[in-house]
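#struct-help
A.M.: can someone run this one for me? Single chain, 415 residues.
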Amino acid sequence: MFQPKELFIGLRYIRARRKNHFVSFIAFISIAGVALGVFALIVVLSVMNGFGNELRDRTLSMTSHATISGYDGYLRDWPAVLEKAEQNKEVIAAAPYINKEVMLSNGRRVSGSLIRGIKPEMESKVSLVESKMVSGSLFDLKPGEYGLVIGRELANTLGVFEGDRVTVITPQANITAVGVMPRLRRFRVVGVFEVGMHEFDAAMAYMHIEDAAKLFSYGDKVNGVRLKFKDLYEAPRITRDIEKEFNDEYWVQDWSQQHRNFFRALQTEKTVMFIILLLMVSVAALNIVSTLMMTVTDKESDIAILRALGMRPSSIMMIFIIQGAFIGLFGTLIGVASGVPVALNVFEIVSWLEQLFHTDFLPSDVYYISDIVADVKVSEVVTYAISAFTVTVLATIYPAWRASRTMPAEALRYE
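D.P.: on it. Structure tokens below:
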């Protein structure tokens, strides 16, 4: 792309001591700005990756990798559907479920809730609820005993503990001699769970699937079958394969479709943050423009002599592009070298700062994710570094072009 003389002169200008120390200071500021921008890109977006992973894991601890249901919202032959789904080599577990919105009451305290009827021995294989129990167990849900496992926030709202009783009020109604009465049933709280997401802890409750079928008059039908895959990231592909196996008789939906808006919002936020931080690198790149413009002015007589000796304008332009590119490269490497270790050890660094200042940056009573975690991806680090370096190279084009337009006779007139 360039001859050795352009590289030699460009590197020589970088090492040369300038009469104008302000130019050297601006060059140092340019390097520091680029390094800070790359550092911020790596640390901030790696932390956002960590938060995204944590939110996804907590969400998937309550939801399934995929669900199979009828187009009318019911499955009447669910045992056969479950058995056929488990024959797929990518499916490691399956469980039937019943979902219904109800009202829970305890005295004067009332709260809406999403009831999920489950088979405890099967549900424990497709979700992590059993590992999130604060008290009791999913296996305490016995058919005919009308037990209930509820989220911790929901238990606080209702003011109940393990062993207390709550009333479940369903949307269905019974016609009696005194008129239409809501269908309700007393349940005993046999367990409390906490997954760390308000959406579930404040509204979710579990009961045995046989009790749910009786309460909601489902008979032998359920709302669907929940599936767990070997690799959750392959869920869209596996879902399409299962849908073909059933000849599109059932509606098969994976986790990325069920929570599409949520995960799309996270990705959009990450993209916007990347653009904002890249603008920070662009501001640092403006310093490179200033550095090169002052260098061009400082070396105007040298440029004129080189032109007089026969160097082409494109070669002059390449000299200053090389000079600016090395400033950008040096800053980018410093940013990567400092950003990656900080991102990898951000949890320990934040813990040390909390101890040093005797504070808690993310109080657990306010934030459901109280620990700062990071996920450093090599591919993303490379992308951030290349993007920052590209911005700095683009910033060198105008000053280099101005240098190539220097007229030898005018530059050397008063020399």
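A.M.: thanks! Residues 4-57+263-411 form one domain.
D.P.: also worth noting: The chain has two domains: 4-57+263-411, 66-258.
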